[in-house]
Design a protein that fits this description.
The protein has about 750 residues and is α/β, with parallel strands linked by helices. The chain has 30 helices and 18 strands. The strands form four sheets. Strands 1, 2, 3, 4, 5, 6, 7 and 8 form an eight-stranded mixed beta sheet that branches. It has a five-stranded parallel beta sheet with strand order 10-11-12-9-13, sandwiched between helices. A three-stranded antiparallel beta sheet has the order 16-18-17. The longest helix is centred in the first third of the chain and has 26 residues, at about 75-100.
């Protein structure tokens, strides 16, 4: 039966025909080398064709043919064929570079759309599927006609993909017999897909400006990932420079259909949240939301693991649930029983690595972490091991971070240079050039021009920071300097008196100050929660503010916040971390304390069923509210959770903070069992993180204060001190129900 399809016919040049390339690869390599090289090229081409939903129909010597059947329409097949043409050329160039081949080779490609007939030839086991028909003949004819490096499409294909690339019309070529000719077009370059901004009215939007090179570099690395080569990518730049926009642009590219992207985020308030970016990634993967009660979260986690690693599901689940603080029962609880400290950390890491490796066999994975400069120390330590998986597995890690965070972001960048020098790439996002800033302004205003003096002042003051430029334009709209009529921007006479703020901080605070009192109160409360905040908590904490939904909709419309929905859960995000921080800093100290108390009480009420996930967050809010009793309570609970989940660094910090906050009278009381137990935990955690001398000193202090036992300082005493310290750690932990 005849059907319509798009055919790609291609010939490798310079592989076995010298002509334009001089010495051929077949002349410069041994027979075994040629066989191996051809095998790799075949795999590369087949993988690329399959990635774009095609099938490799034949591969003979220097030529091959691929078939692309229609998806929803014939247009899909033609687009996939064109994407494949670009992709194979780029992959071959990467292949040549990686192999350091002295002789280059290239492709010429013909693409045609039309009728084909698929049939089987041969008998019994020798049967083979073959295709014939008009599209096959035309693709072969075009390929024969094409010159070195050219990709040429026929008229029907051009009609389907004319908006997908830049084409040049060529003279028609004669078909066999010369009675008819075939219209052809050379494909010059591909048009990048742009984010859909057609529905925006009040919001100002623009196509991405000035980041083409960075986007191509990132896309090239993703292509390598699809071909099996993992990497660690660092996207680095100052606040507002466009790091997240670069990532957002890549997300909508067709190539992302061939990978699974999982997103996580470190929080500015997350130092007390053990493994937060990592558990955030896992929750994103298995679909756990803040609405889920622990049993529902556990079931989602187990099913997600089972789909990828059915044989290891029980083992991996026990340790992943432990890391995430989910309750364990039965055989899972028995599996982790008695495992603590460093041993627990190692087993959690091993099982997480096993899960990532197994999942990557199903589909290449990209693990994206926003705001990596705020990551907790346990996550950083774990990532050091996870990054190494990119060397041998189709796994990519993308770290989005700001420079200047010595203990986190800067540390990770240096560690990667020292430990994975050939497998990590840093993409530095720089300020826009003046011309690019002008283009961004024009795009934001839908090509409406500002007076030259005003545009020049914006460009000078914003120094190429896209977010600063956007905020200036938004402030113009807020102040009526620019009006919107019938979906069009109109510059009013007020533009002649405009005063453009000197810093991005000034323009953001000016916009916040112009909000009505209740809306500003709402935004202030949200800023206390952090950059991310949940509707349910905000609703509980702002019960005196009417028209909550309308005010949130307005804040979203003026682009101070954005909204995302995860099933039944509504989460909001400040448009930029600077907006959240500046709003928070503008709140007077006394009001800030009261808001932290409100937020903490709301979290306790809204998330009562899975409150253990919020111990660290509650410790943070009660610390800011200067409520010492509640702070100590949640520091201890958060420390216990961190210790159980294998996050020894966080556990130690939390326990030490709790001890610091306790009154000195209790610390000096030899009969205060709670203080003694806390000190033992600190000693145990010191040992777990390798601070062994401190661990021993702490145990000695415990012996002296609570058991009236002092170890001698002789050589024998030193030996006894080490033995007794280890014994004491084991004894106290096993017999005092810590």
């Amino acid at each position: 039966m005849q059907q319509t399809a798009t055919i790609l016919s291609a010939e490798l040049l310079g592989f076995s025909h010298g002509d334009a390339f001089g010495t051929t690869l077949t002349e410069s390599l041994s027979p075994d080398g040629i066989t191996s090289l051809m095998g790799e090229i075949h795999t590369l081409i087949e993988t690329t064709v399959r990635m774009h939903h095609g099938s490799l129909n034949r591969f003979t010597g220097d030529t091959f043919m691929a078939v692309f059947h229609p998806g929803k329409t014939s247009k899909h097949a033609a687009i996939h064929a064109v994407d494949t043409a670009f992709e194979i050329k780029e992959q071959l160039q990467l292949f040549i570079d990686d192999k350091k081949l002295k002789q280059a080779f290239d492709l010429k490609i013909g693409i045609a759309t039309g009728g084909i007939l698929s049939t089987e030839i041969g008998i019994n086991e020798s049967k083979q599927q073959t295709i014939m028909g008009e599209a096959v003949n035309h693709a072969l004819r075009i390929c024969q006609f094409a010159g070195e490096g050219q990709t040429i499409v026929d008229g029907p294909s051009h009609e389907l993909v004319r908006d997908h690339g830049v084409f040049q019309s060529l003279e028609p070529i004669p078909l066999k017999g010369g009675a008819e000719s075939l219209s052809i077009y050379e494909l010059i370059e591909r048009k990048r897909k742009k984010m859909d901004v057609s529905s925006m009215e009040r919001k100002i939007v623009s196509e991405m400006v000035g980041r083409g090179r960075e986007a191509e570099q990132l896309e090239s690395l993703i292509k390598k990932l699809i071909a099996g080569k993992g990497s660690v990518v660092n996207i680095v730049g100052k606040a507002g420079i466009g790091k997240s926009r670069l990532v957002a642009e890549i997300k909508v590219q067709p190539i992302m259909e061939n990978v699974l992207l999982l997103e996580g985020r470190a929080l500015s308030t997350g130092q007390n949240l053990s493994f937060h970016p990592i558990t955030n990634l896992i929750k994103s993967w298995v679909g756990i939301t803040e609405d889920d009660i622990p049993s529902a979260s556990s079931e989602k986690l187990f099913q997600g693991i089972k789909q990828n690693t059915p044989e290891q599901a029980d083992e991996i689940y026990a340790f992943m649930a432990t890391m995430m603080g989910l309750p364990l029962t039965g055989k899972y609880k028995e599996r982790v029983k008695g495992i603590e400290g460093e041993a627990l950390e190692k087993l959690i890491l091993k099982n997480l690595r096993d899960l990532i490796i197994s999942a990557a066999k199903v589909k290449p994975r990209i693990y994206l972490i926003e705001d990596m400069h705020w990551a907790d120390s346990s996550s950083l330590t774990m990532f050091e091991s996870l990054y190494k998986l990119s060397q041998n597995h189709p796994v990519m890690f993308i770290n989005v971070l700001r420079p200047g965070y010595k203990e986190t972001g800067d540390y990770i960048l240096k560690w990667l240079v020292d430990n994975l020098p050939g497998d990590n790439i840093t993409i530095n996002v720089s300020p826009l050039a003046d011309g690019e800033s002008g283009e961004l302004i024009s795009n934001l205003l839908k090509k409406v021009s500002l007076p030259e003096r005003v545009a020049s002042t914006i460009i000078r003051k914003t120094e190429g920071n896209p977010f600063f430029i956007e905020e200036v334009i938004r402030s113009f709209i807020d102040e009526g300097i620019i009006e919107i009529k019938e979906k069009q921007f109109i510059v009013t006479d007020k533009i002649n008196e405009v005063n453009i703020p000197e810093t991005i901080n000034d323009v953001i605070l000016s916009r916040v100050d112009k909000l009505d009192e209740k809306t500003r109160e709402l935004l202030n409360t949200a800023s206390v929660m952090g950059r991310n905040f949940y509707y349910k908590v905000l609703e509980e904490a702002t019960d005196t503010i009417e028209e909550l939904d309308e005010r949130l909709a307005y804040l979203s419309e003026v682009q101070l916040i954005t909204e995302s929905k995860k099933k039944q859960e509504i989460e909001y995000l400040f448009k930029h971390a600077l907006a959240q921080q500046l709003t928070y800093d503008s709140i007077i100290q006394q009001s800030r304390k009261g808001l932290h108390l409100k937020i903490a009480a709301s979290i306790e009420k809204v998330f009562a069923e899975n409150i253990n996930e919020f111990y660290g967050t509650l410790a943070y809010h009660y610390t800011k509210a200067e409520n010492k009793e509640k702070t100590i309570q949640y520091l201890l609970l958060a420390g216990d959770e961190a210790m159980k989940s294998g996050a020894s660094s966080e556990a130690l910090q939390l326990f030490e903070n709790a001890l610091d906050d306790l009154p000195q009278s209790r610390k000096n009381d030899p009969n205060d069992i709670e203080i003694k137990n806390l000190r033992v935990k600190i000693a145990f955690m010191c040992h777990a993180v390798g601070r062994n001398q401190e661990a021993v000193s702490n145990i000695e202090s415990i012996f002296e204060q609570y058991y009236n036992f002092r170890v001698a300082k002789t050589d024998r005493g030193i030996l006894l001190r080490g033995i007794s310290s280890m014994f004491a750690s084991i004894f106290i932990f096993n017999n005092e129900s810590l």
